[in-house]
Amino acid sequence: MTVHAPGLPHPRIAQRRAAVDAATRAKEGRRRRLLWLALAAALVLLSGYLATRSEMLDIDRLEVNGAVRTSPDEIIAVSGVPTGSPLIGLDLADARARIAGLPWVKDVYSTRSWDGVVRFTITERSPLAALATPSGWALVEENGRVLAVEQELSGSPVPIIGLNIAQAAPGDWLEPTQRGALTVAAELYEPVRGAVRSVQVEPEGYVLDLHNAGRVLLGSAEEMAAKVLAVHTFIERVNLRCMDTLDVRSPGNPVLTRRNPCQ
User: Fold this and answer.
1) Considering the entire predicted model, what is its pTM?
2) Are residues 19 and 96 in the same domain?
3) Alpha-carbon span 15 to 29, nearest angstrom
4) In percent, how much of the chain has pLDDT > 90?
């Protein structure tokens, strides 16, 4: 028989109370730890958000590399990326798409660095031909896109005369019927290219106006590679002195006509 002192709780009740108190303290401890972890996570997230909106991660400078025909200021303006905006969340793909819409831009690459610099690296297009227009010379890429209009012809584009282009502006496209002359220009190579003053579009077809040796009748744009090869063969192997015309409209049977008298 167990006897306990009057006024004291039964040992079993005391044990149960102690177990309940311990469980309560453990639960409170877990709650406090979870609360501190939640506060710490919120603080980290808040700090990260504030950092992305702080001047530490802002765009301080934009740079353009590789652009010659298009000014860096124009490229930066078209990109739509202002200095002072956050580096985090910057949509560089959209900026590259806008820059790629400029006439001279062929490819554009971009990088960003944590020192606040965004760089655009540009690869520019090359004009194949220069088309005579009332306002000057339209520099045109091989695919028929107008890159620029210049008053003076300079550089290496092949001059094309006689397409009767009323007007041209950067970004315009030639009509499909006008692109045959570009096929002629694209087939020219040295030493033929160096001998050509211009490609002329005439009713009988395409004609090469040579610097020192008359004219070459090409006819249509068909078999153009074979026709240019025939011209190349004559330049390399035949004395073209006093040449009036070289007819290669039938490239397998070219005909050379000289001026008479020959002086």
Assistant:
1) 0.69
2) no
3) 21
4) 46
